[in-house]
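Morning F.,

Quick status update on the modeling queue. The single chain you submitted on Monday has been processed. Sequence for confirmation:
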Amino acid sequence: MRHMAIYEHYRGLSTGNSQWVLVQPPDSFKARVTEYLTSAMVARVSSGSSRLTGAPTILHCMFLAAAESCWRDYLNYLQAELTAMVQPNG
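Structure tokens below.
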């Protein structure tokens, strides 16, 4: 079973910056975040802005969607474990 951890440090309203640390993100999740950040950087360069554009909570939504997508697999795993305990020969 794979687990992912996320840490965010928000630097406050004065800077509006955040630092993110992702521990063991799935490859599919890394690809989605990379795609989003790449397109945001292109938009930033095109607009001449010094900041990334887009909704500030989009990364939060991506993290929640990644966690939710694995929830069914985790429940199936737990069901198999419980079934094995209840029916050890079956």
